[in-house]
Design brief:
The chain has 396 residues and is of the alpha/beta class. The chain is built from 16 helices and 9 strands. The strands form 3 sheets. It has a 5-stranded parallel sheet with strand order 2-3-6-1-7. The radius of gyration is 23 Å and the shape is globular. The structure holds adenosine-5'-triphosphate and magnesium ion (MG). Magnesium ion is lined by residues 55-56, 120.
Length: 396
């Protein structure tokens, strides 16, 4: 069921416009509405939803519609900070607290006093940091690393995660008391596949944005493309749709995109999705590693296919099929869509899995100009895992 746009409350329209949120699906409107409702009340909020659903808009809405709007808003990606420094980043440290602490430093909880702190990928917090966070949530008190003086701060915490927190609690990776404390209010963001006509609205918006960005004629979508987009699972949600629209906008500028063309940008037809039985957070490290390997194999396979067709077309006098540059064959569906089962390579690959992994990370880093956040996102691993792998393979 679609909501009539005129039925959308004015404050929700305002938030959508201010943050550039596109969509009228009832579940999305309800989530925005809930964020606005809870904004003035100083409760902790937990935002959950699959990867790429747009969770990062919500803490901003909450801050903007709260009395704290003129104070600081600090967003922290908990998965990106190495375990050894996270306490000091969040809570600060005293001079000499550890080797290299040449001066005292304020943490984000002190910096954002009076404002809002957004803890993204909160499930990645180490247990020791979870204990400190619980204390600050319960009493507003914290200790700098290396200090025994209790400090006070007045902060609103909004956290987000794309993992199954209850499973993380069950497995002892996340404190139960902290989970309940953080999720006083819970806002769940719907996956793109459940948003019906929003998919085409978003595709049109991204097509217009990229046409403007690249100063190229705008692409449009025919009925077969719309049908495919509505049927497809969009495991990477809005991020995946945006990514694909960008590639289409660049390489098919001005074209009418058909279902066939759109399909060629989606994972190969041989690809099988195993519907996710549980949310990804629940997985053990070894399972994450396995997913990483699968994604890598999938990516290598795509690159081999692309190379093969490049060689094929180079040996033909006339191009019969469009060839996508290898650098663009880089979409790795996120883990929560279930594992990707790649088609068996036609030729045996002499490289070991480790070599494959190393090479894939190296290429991804290169593609992303060395930016770790973008690389981790592309490979669908946490920045911490990426950091570890970079060290392990000496890729610095
Ligand atoms: N409704 C929407 N309208 C416009 N853009 C959107 C919408 N939802 C998401 N996006 C865009 O999609 C991309 C992914 O969104 P975002 O980074 O918020 O995802 P996320 O839920 O935080 O994912 P992850 O769990 O992987 O961090 C961003 O570029 C965001 O601007
Ligand atoms: Mg995010």
């Amino acid at each position: 069921m679609e909501i009539n746009i005129t039925d959308i409350p004015q404050d929700v329209q305002q938030a959508k416009m201010r943050f550039g949120i596109v969509g009228n699906a009832p579940a999305l409107i309800a989530a925005i509405s809930r964020a606005i409702q809870v904004a003035p009340i100083d409760l902790s909020v937990l935002i959950t939803g699959e990867s790429g659903t747009g969770k990062e808009f919500f803490p901003k809405i909450i801050h903007a519609f709260s009395a704290r709007k003129h104070s600081k808003y600090i967003a922290v990606n908990c998965g990106a900070i190495p375990e050894g420094t996270i306490d000091s980043e969040l809570f600060g440290h005293e001079k000499g607290a550890f080797t290299g602490a040449v001066a005292a430093r304020k943490g984000y909880f002190e910096e954002a006093d009076g404002g809002t702190i957004f803890l993204d990928e909160v499930a990645e917090l180490p247990l020791t940091t979870q204990a400190r966070l619980l204390r600050v949530l319960e009493s507003g008190e914290f200790l700098k690393v290396g200090s025994s003086t209790v400090q006070k701060t007045n902060i609103r915490v909004v956290a987000a995660t794309n993992v199954d927190m209850l499973k993380a609690v069950e497995e002892g990776r996340f404190r139960e008391d902290l989970y309940y404390r953080l999720s006083t209010v819970h806002i769940s963001i719907p996956p793109l596949r459940d948003r019906g006509a929003d998919i085409t609205l978003l595709a049109r918006k991204f097509a217009a944005d990229f046409a403007e960005k690249y100063r190229m004629p705008q692409i449009s979508f025919d009925e077969s493309a719309r049908e495919l987009a509505l049927r497809y699972r969009w495991p990477g949600n809005v991020r995946q749709l945006k990514n694909i629209t960008e590639q289409l906008a660049l390489f098919n500028a001005g074209d009418v995109v058909t279902g066939q063309l759109l399909g060629s940008f989606l994972p190969p037809s041989g690809t099988v999705y195993t519907p996710a039985v549980s949310a990804p957070s629940a997985r053990h490290d070894y399972e994450r590693e396995r997913e990483l390997l699968f994604n890598m194999i999938f990516r290598m396979q795509s690159e081999i296919d692309a190379l093969r067709s490049e060689i094929r077309s180079a040996s033909q006098p006339v191009h019969t099929e469009p060839v996508m540059p290898t650098s663009l064959v880089r979409y790795a569906p996120p883990a929560e869509a279930g594992l990707i089962v790649p088609a068996a390579p036609a030729e045996a690959h002499p490289a070991t899995l480790e070599e494959t992994e190393k090479e894939t990370i190296r290429r991804s880093l290169e593609n992303n100009g060395g930016r770790r956040k973008a690389t981790a996102r592309e490979l669908n691993i946490s920045e911490r895992t990426l950091y570890r792998k970079i060290k392990e393979y000496g890729l610095e």
